[in-house]
Design brief:
The chain is mainly beta and 116 residues long. The chain has no helices and eleven strands. The mean pLDDT is 95.
Length: 116
């Protein structure tokens, strides 16, 4: 499984960005897809994850502002980020959990910078 994330960049507070993650490999072997982030000096944290049945879990700090979705045919997962604030500045990592083994795969990360 290989993951290719895109869509990061610089945005002003209150703005929006949309991240995409193209996933190569057999989509039927995927248990869950989603996003984590890591800010400087902080631990990696959950942003959002969506399972095969469409159930989505969000981190507390992004609830109501971010939306995670997937296109199963394109094998792509998206993260729509609205009302961004400087605390959202981080490297965002695409994540896939393999069905069965629950092994985690990670993308290369895409930087999101929110200016005040």
């Amino acid at each position: 499984v290989q993951l290719q994330a895109s869509g990061g960049g610089l945005v002003q507070a209150g703005g929006s960005l949309r991240l995409s993650c193209a996933i190569s490999g057999n989509r039927f072997l995927i248990h869950a897809r989603g996003w984590y982030r890591q800010a400087p000096g902080k631990q990696r944290e959950l942003v959002a994850i969506i399972t095969g049945d469409g159930s989505t879990t969000y981190g507390d700090s992004v609830k109501g502002r971010f939306t995670c979705s997937r296109d199963s045919v394109k094998n792509t997962v998206y993260l729509q980020m609205n009302n961004l604030n400087p605390e959202d500045t981080a490297v965002y990592y695409c994540n896939v959990v393999r069905r069965g083994s629950l092994h985690n795969y990670w993308g290369q990360g895409t930087l999101v910078t929110v200016s005040s």
